[in-house]
């Protein structure tokens, strides 16, 4: 019996439980863009550089779901499925999936730290919402409804 | 190659138990055994010893999976686990017990989060590691 090891086990299990529960609550939440832009507008998302978006393969669309994934990311698959379903359901929504590893410059520029990360961009290329983890389909549709008033 | 996610959860649960035993007993040899299990599973997740147990004992009672997951994230996670347990075994067996405990504790955290919550820390951190490496390469 190693008392130090015993303490280590207890510490890890408690810390893991707390982290796991916290993560479960926050994962996939569609938060507003972290940085607020200075210029006024209907939405207060940050406008991303057109050149940057072009590099990521984002084309003009009323709304773009920009997903960052890696090959070693199991939940990326779930985000891909939800995003593709929503894009098929709502006209004007385009889903773009990017391999984060082959776009490290853009990943740094956009402050992406883990995959999957999903950005919601409006027609002007402003980041309106961002989710790390897997957002639920209803939450994603609700967030998009704010951007697509003409459809309702 | 695609895998049954329930098999991976089972393997993570068994790994959690084994690493707990490593820490409680302070056995470097058990850490080494777990490192070997990780290495085999990283090479081929379907041939991993815990996957074999899952298919022989648990799967016949469950029936076929509702969905399958890609193997690449799982293999990467096994590689991360192997690194932790290899360092741990080295630490315990060479008398640097503190290194053995810390490395095993990190492995335990990853295995526990995977077993209890389905989280894969190593997979999520992959892009973080790439980002940091990239920055270092650039600043040199």
The structural domain count of chain B equals 1
Order of helices and strands of chain B: EHHHEHHH
Low-confidence stretches of chain A: 34-43
CATH homologous superfamily descriptor of chain A = Glutaredoxin
* Number of self-contained structural domains of chain A: 1
Into which percentage range does the β-strand content of chain B fall? Answer: under 5%
Counting DSSP E segments of at least 2 residues, the number of strands of chain A comes to 6
Tell me the β content of chain A: 15-25%
Strand order of the largest sheet of chain B: 1-2
User: Using DSSP, what is the number of strands of chain B?
Assistant: 2
pLDDT < 50 stretches of chain B: none
**What is the helix/strand order of chain A?**
HEEHEHEHEEH
Structural class of chain A: alpha+beta
Average the pLDDT over all residues of chain A and give the rounded result.
87
Q: Helix count of chain B, per DSSP?
A: 6
């Amino acid at each position: 019996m190693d008392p130090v090891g015993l303490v280590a086990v207890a510490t890890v299990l408690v810390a893991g439980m707390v982290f796991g529960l916290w993560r479960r609550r926050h994962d996939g939440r569609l938060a507003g863009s972290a940085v607020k832009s200075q210029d006024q507008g209907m939405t207060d998302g940050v406008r991303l550089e057109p050149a940057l978006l072009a590099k990521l393969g984002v084309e003009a669309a009323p709304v773009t779901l920009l997903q960052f994934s890696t090959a070693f990311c199991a939940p990326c698959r779930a985000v891909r499925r939800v995003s593709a379903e929503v894009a098929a359901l709502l006209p004007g929504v385009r889903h773009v999936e990017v391999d984060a590893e082959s776009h490290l410059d853009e990943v740094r520029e956009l402050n992406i730290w883990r995959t999957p990360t999903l950005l919601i961009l409006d027609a002007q290329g402003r980041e309106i919402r961002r989710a790390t983890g897997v957002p639920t389909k209803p939450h994603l549709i609700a967030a998009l409804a704010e951007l697509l008033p003409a459809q309702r | 190659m695609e895998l049954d996610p329930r098999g991976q959860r089972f393997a993570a649960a068994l790994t959690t138990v084994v690493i707990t035993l490593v820490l409680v007993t302070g056995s470097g040899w058990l850490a080494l055994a777990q490192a070997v299990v990780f290495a085999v599973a990283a090479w081929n997740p379907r041939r991993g010893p815990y996957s074999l147990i899952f298919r022989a004992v648990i799967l016949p009672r469950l029936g076929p999976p509702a969905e399958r997951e890609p193997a690449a994230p799982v293999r990467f996670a096994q590689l991360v686990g192997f690194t932790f347990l290899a360092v741990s075994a080295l630490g315990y067996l060479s008398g640097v017990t503190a290194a053995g405990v810390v490395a095993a504790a990190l492995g335990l955290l990853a295995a526990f989060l995977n077993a209890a919550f389905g989280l894969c820390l190593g997979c999520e951190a992959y892009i973080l590691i790439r980002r940091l490496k990239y920055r270092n390469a650039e600043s040199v």
